[in-house]
Amino acid sequence: METLEKPKRRFNMKFTKRKKIYILVGMFVLLAVTGYLNFTLNRGGGEVGGGGGGQITSQTFFTTFHAQRADERAASIAILTNMSAADSGYSAEIRANAAQQLMTLLASIQYENTTEGLIKAQDFDDAIVMKTNGNVNVVIRSDATHDEQAVFVPNVLRVVRDQWGTSTFGEFDIERVFVSFMA
To answer: What is the pTM (predicted TM-score) of this model?
Structure first.
């Protein structure tokens, strides 16, 4: 009679705390990219196409986006705060990394909110500002015509450059600024 050998594991399924952090941050980045791609691929005529055949107005889009972003950020802040706590059980290096990520996230939130407010102060209905991988994406809800939008773009670019040029946590590296309008 032959004895059966136990099959060897092909994958190491044990994750270190550092790997878990990288996976979590990677998932957050993928979520942000997915939301951005969903928005850019589905926009047109002032409406964003809904999945169930219905239409979502741009106002609803902006409201939903702001709410989802706030929820995602609250969850990220809670996770990073717990990880950076002295009694979290994580190593000092992981706690320091989590604390640095938390500070960067908080600075980004501050600058995005301030920039959105400054853009809205120029008589725009609403604005979304997102910084990803050196790019700042600005989406503005406005009923302005195409020619009027062209006049507004330099002002928006100035606001973004002035606001994002430097911060208390170092300089934000901005390669490009994309501005788009929704009716």
So the answer is: 0.60
